[in-house]
Amino acid sequence: MCAVLSNQPEVPLVAAPDPKPRSRPRAGLTFLGRLPRTERAYIADALRTETVGGMLLLIAAITALAWANTPLSHSYESVSDFHLGPGALGLHLSVEHWAADGLIAVFFFVAGIELKRELVAGELRNPRAAALPVIAALCGMAAPAVVYAVVNAVSGGSMDGWAVPTATDIAFALAVLAVIGTSLPSALRAFLLTLAVVDDLFAILIIAVFFAGKIHFAALGGAVLGLVVFWLLLRMNVRGWYIYVPLALINWGLMYNSGVHATIAGVAMGLMLRCTRREGESHSPGEHIEHLVRPFSAGFAVPLFALFAAGVSVSGSALGDVFSRPETLGVVLGLVVGKAVGIFGGTWLTARFTRAEINKDLAWADVFAVSALAGIGFTVSLLIGELAFTGDTALTGEIKASVFVGSVIAAVISSILLRLRNRKYQAICLAEETDDELSAETGRSERTGAAGGDEDSRA
């Protein structure tokens, strides 16, 4: 049973490097030069783990906060506002804008592949099995929005930020679970992953429906045509990164100029990839591309987005305002209370009044701990916060601060709950191992006694 309780590592899609490579002369390493293959493989594999990706995201956020709250804050603003890119193509954007609209599209591209994999080969393939996490995810997005709306309706705040606390940061949440839940059931990680993937899907729909700008139909038509070409090339089994990468950039640029948020292009292309294996394939194209792109997403795209999205001025008075202003209080309560109540309540009601059941390896206390963990909004919440209050710099900064506060509170509460559950499962494993040892010792004693009796009878 202890093997079932432990989190199972993902099987790599490529063969591990030879632990004892053949010796050969190596030139000295050049500063900022290309690393040897073994080192590149090691770094890429590390970046594919949730723990490393979550830590890089956390380091980038802390760096942004420190940079924006020191005497060097003017340099942070200068770098964030520095513009580059071809103006003739409508892409002369600030560094902050490139991070929020460009690099984050890579994150959503990977999220699109994960969603496709879950739909065709994972928990979402079976409608009965998918019902529980899907309903839990929907309730986990509806409840925070309701909490935000109630707080702002009572206090006369703005309703524009209702979607900010609806998102879950899959990287942070899985990183916390990986660090703390070493002995938790593997089914808990599967539940959280499915929950977060569905959450990402509806977050993308929210961005597309509620935060689209003025639609430019010519650019939108070009983006749709580019996506069709992308799909046709995939169905024709055309290979070559030199074809797909330029086409992906064109699709992104057209989607950005259409007024629809550019991340939609990323998730659309991710969903088009085939994630089922054919005869003779060790992995599907979607799995292979995700394996290649994830290190770039986790090690560069998402941390850089956090670096230029999380740099808000935080003072004692600003933190006090988080709990006094209705918009920011609604975000904090939505993430901490709304997420936990919505996900746990949706799961319990679905299991209580339908035929859906939670995994037999999970207890309701495990589900509540994961429900609290889903309150870590961070990446997508910051993105939606910027879209919801575009033009109001002061309120945008306060909303970002509230996302930080709410995510930290949710992380602390869920970490305590997960640690308690982890100790519980560790105790179960230890008790089972002790019972096995006692049973083995008893068996050996019985066999020894029987052998002695046989010798006596023969004598």
Describe the structure.
It is a single chain. The longest helix has 66 residues, at 393-458. This protein has helices at 2-5, 37-47, 50-68, 73-81, 95-121, 127-155, 170-180, 186-210, 217-235, 241-258, 263-272, 285-309, 316-322, 326-353, 364-373, 378-388, 393-458; strands at residues 83-84, 93-94. It contains 17 helices and two strands. It has two domains: 43-68 and 97-208 and 265-276 and 285-434, Na+/H+ antiporter like domain (Na+/H+ antiporter like fold, Up-down Bundle), CATH 1.20.1530.10; 212-260, no CATH class. By secondary structure, the chain is mainly alpha-helical.
Mean pLDDT: 81
CATH topology of the largest domain: Na+/H+ antiporter like fold
Can you tell me the CATH class of the largest domain? Mainly Alpha
> Which structural class fits the helix and strand makeup?
mainly alpha
* CA-atom Rg in angstroms: 25 Å
User: Helix proportion of residues, in percent?
Assistant: over 70%
The CATH architecture of the largest domain can be named as: Up-down Bundle
Classified in CATH, the superfamily of the largest domain is Na+/H+ antiporter like domain
Q: Segments where pLDDT lies below 50 for 5+ residues? A: 3-33
Q: Describe the strand arrangement of the main beta sheet, using strand numbers.
A: 1-2
Order of helices and strands: HHHHEEHHHHHHHHHHHHH
Give the number of domains: 2
Report the total helices: 17
Our estimate of the beta-strand percent is under 5%
How far is the N terminus from the C terminus?
45 Å
- Globular, elongated, flat, extended or rod-shaped: what is the shape? globular
- Number of separate strands: 2
Please summarize the sheet with the most strands: 2 strands, antiparallel
